[in-house]
Design goal:
six-stranded antiparallel β-sheet; binds zinc ion; DUF951 domain-containing protein; DUF951
């Protein structure tokens, strides 16, 4: 299961037509709401669609594959 939270920045399989491919997750649920960081346009997609299209997620300064992104352990 993929791990991501509100406010996370992700990249998708295909970028936005504006040329940007960084998206902020602004709503989570059955549908996911993403804001394009290039042009501020908002898109909705089903969670299933999102999980098929998402590729990377920002962790600190860099982007890593979302399959390697996990919830931080709580006893750290
Ligand atoms: Zn855009």
């Amino acid at each position: 299961m993929l791990f991501y939270e509100l406010g996370d920045i992700v990249t998708l399989k295909k970028g936005h037509p504006c040329g940007e491919n960084k998206w902020e997750i602004t709503r989570k649920g059955t549908d996911i709401k993403l804001r394009c960081l290039g042009c501020d346009r908002v898109v909705w997609m089903s969670r299933m669609d999102f999980e098929k299209r998402v590729r990377k997620i920002q962790e600190g300064e860099k982007f890593i594959s979302i399959v390697h992104h996990h919830k931080p352990t709580e006893d750290e």
